[in-house]
Design goal:
By secondary structure, the protein is α+β, with helices and mostly antiparallel strands. 15% of the residues lie in helices and 42% in strands. The chain is built from two helices and twelve strands. It has helices spanning 5-17, 26-44; strands spanning 49-57, 61-70, 73-78, 81-85, 90-94, 99-103, 124-131, 134-141, 149-156, 163-170, 173-184, 203-206. The chain has a twelve-stranded mixed β-sheet, covered by helices on one side. The longest helix is centred in the N-terminal third of the chain and has 19 residues, at 26-44. Mean pLDDT is 86; it is low at 19-24.
């Protein structure tokens, strides 16, 4: 499976955006949603977060790296690829080919692959259980909804509600994400600024406005 740098960024953001959430009794569902909201704010709140990740999609696509998120801003780094998104411009870098692409991060035409990972948080029933790994929050889609992600499970650290792992199902395959070194807050905006001087010798392609 070949995934471009832009697609890679979109997939990663989708994976981290689906961090949690099953059909159970009302109290269980309410508790699950409260835990979901708490973790969601740590990941996508105004203070931002950073983490290391390892992704495995049914054994045919594997990658690992680090990512920082702060609202609509993102920056990720892998062995071959990296990207900077300051909320207005997305610079995707292929370190092997020495190529940089400029994209509009808000354009729905930017990436067809990302359309396979659609979701709306209110499209799911929430529940939770405990396991030796931590708090397991499960989501299952309600009937008649449009989200393409049908099921998901997230494991949270019971002490601080930090995400530990995430499994999601799209169509007939599962994607697994393992998370380490999660840090909430104190993310500088400067982290999302593209260091143009560092890649001045790279081939530049302007894909704006996608």
């Amino acid at each position: 499976m070949r995934i471009t740098t832009t697609r890679r960024a979109a997939v990663l953001l989708m994976l981290f955006a689906l961090l949690f959430v099953g059909k159970a009794n009302a109290n269980n569902a309410q508790e699950a949603r409260k835990m979901f909201d708490r973790t969601w704010k740590m990941v996508f709140g105004p203070e931002g977060c950073s983490l290391n990740y390892s992704v495995n999609i049914i054994g045919i696509y594997k990658t690992q790296g680090s990512i920082a998120i702060k609202g609509k801003k993102q920056h990720f780094v892998e062995k071959r690829y990296c990207a900077w998104n300051n909320g207005k411009k997305l610079y995707s870098v292929d370190l092997k080919k020495k190529k940089v692409e400029l994209h509009n991060p808000q354009s729905p035409k930017r990436d067809k692959y990302a359309s396979k990972f659609t979701y709306a948080l209110n499209d799911y029933n929430y529940s939770w259980t405990k396991s030796k790994e931590g708090i397991v929050i499960t989501l299952n889609t309600k009937k008649g909804v449009d989200s393409s992600v049908k099921h998901a499970k997230v494991v949270l650290n019971p002490k601080n509600y930090y995400p530990v792992s995430l499994h999601i199902k799209v169509a007939f395959f599962w994607a697994k994400v393992y998370i380490t070194n999660f840090k909430a807050g104190n993310i500088s905006d400067r982290l999302f600024d593209y260091p143009a001087a560092r890649f001045k010798d790279y081939i530049f392609k302007n894909c704006w406005p996608d």
